[in-house]
Each structure stands twice: as structure tokens, then as C-alpha cells.
């Protein structure tokens, strides 16, 4: 399983739906979406900052995560951004991979 952060912003219509449904109903809708995709919802937080929600979840892979994000956006009431999250151990593995790269102009 891979961990992802899904940030969302509601459109005007999405906010109308949130107002009608309430927060706990939306959490259960998101939980069902993630679980039906073979994942696990770790947390969902509402916010009044840059994003309206922060969703942390485990999903089988990047393809599944992308399918979830597309399904959310396709409805037209929520704009979503999908961000893969890495553990410190994964970063350790990454920085030890041999990657050759030439800086522009060098």
C-alpha cells in the first residue's frame, strides 16, 4: 500500500452539498470511496485555509490513487490534488539510488 494526501477545494455547488449533508456524511462517503478502491482512510480534516479538506489514505498504488482523484474531480463539485507521501525509510532508499543528471549549462 502507498500513502497519499488528497487536498480538495469545494466549488460553490460542492459547498451547497456539504451544507446539506454535513461533515460526518462526507467523511463516510470518502471512506467508502477509498475502501471500495482497496484502500484505507487514515484521516479526513476540514479546514478554512488554502484547502477545504485534507485526506490522508492508503491506496494500493499510484494508478488506483489517480483513479480516485479523477472520480472526485469528474463530478465537478470538488477540485482535488493528489500528493504521494513517502516515509523516511523510502526517502533513504531514494537518496541512495544512483541517478545521473547534468545541470542546465554545465
Key features of this structure:
106 residues; alpha+beta; four-stranded antiparallel β-sheet
The SS-based structural class is alpha+beta
Placed side by side, the strands forming the largest sheet appear as: 2-3-1-4
The count of DSSP E runs of length 2 or more, i.e. the number of strands, is: 4
Give the fraction of residues assigned to helices: 40-55%
General form = elongated
Instruction: Encode the helix/strand succession as letters.
Output: EHHEEHEH
CA-to-CA gap between the ends?
A: 39 Å
State Rg.
Answer: 17 Å
Pfam families: GYD
InterPro entries: GYD/TTHA1554
Protein name: GYD domain protein
Organism: Micromonospora maris
Write up what this structure looks like.
This protein is an alpha+beta fold and 106 residues long. Helices cover 42% and strands 29% of the residues. It has four helices and four strands. The chain has helices at residues 12-21, 23-36, 62-74, 88-95, and strands at residues 2-10, 40-46, 53-59, 78-85. The protein has a four-stranded antiparallel sheet. Strand 2 (40-46) and strand 3 (53-59) form a beta hairpin. The longest helix is centred in the N-terminal third of the chain and has 14 residues, at 23-36. The radius of gyration is 17 Å and the shape is elongated. The mean pLDDT is 95. InterPro entries: GYD/TTHA1554. This is GYD domain protein.
Tell me the layout of helices and strands:
Blueprint: E1 2-10, H1 12-21, H2 23-36, E2 40-46, E3 53-59, H3 62-74, E4 78-85, H4 88-95
Antiparallel strand pairs: 1-3, 1-4, 2-3
Amino acid at each position: 500500500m502507498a500513502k497519499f494526501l488528497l487536498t480538495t477545494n469545494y466549488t460553490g455547488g460542492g459547498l451547497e452539498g456539504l451544507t446539506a449533508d454535513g461533515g460526518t456524511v462526507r467523511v463516510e462517503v470518502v471512506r467508502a470511496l477509498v475502501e471500495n478502491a482497496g484502500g484505507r482512510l487514515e484521516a479526513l480534516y476540514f479546514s478554512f485555509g488554502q484547502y477545504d479538506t485534507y485526506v490522508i489514505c492508503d491506496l494500493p498504488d499510484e494508478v488506483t490513487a489517480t483513479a480516485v482523484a479523477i472520480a472526485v474531480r469528474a463530478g465537478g463539485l470538488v477540485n482535488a490534488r493528489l500528493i504521494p507521501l513517502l516515509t523516511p525509510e523510502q526517502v533513504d532508499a531514494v537518496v541512495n539510488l544512483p541517478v545521473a543528471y547534468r545541470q542546465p549549462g554545465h
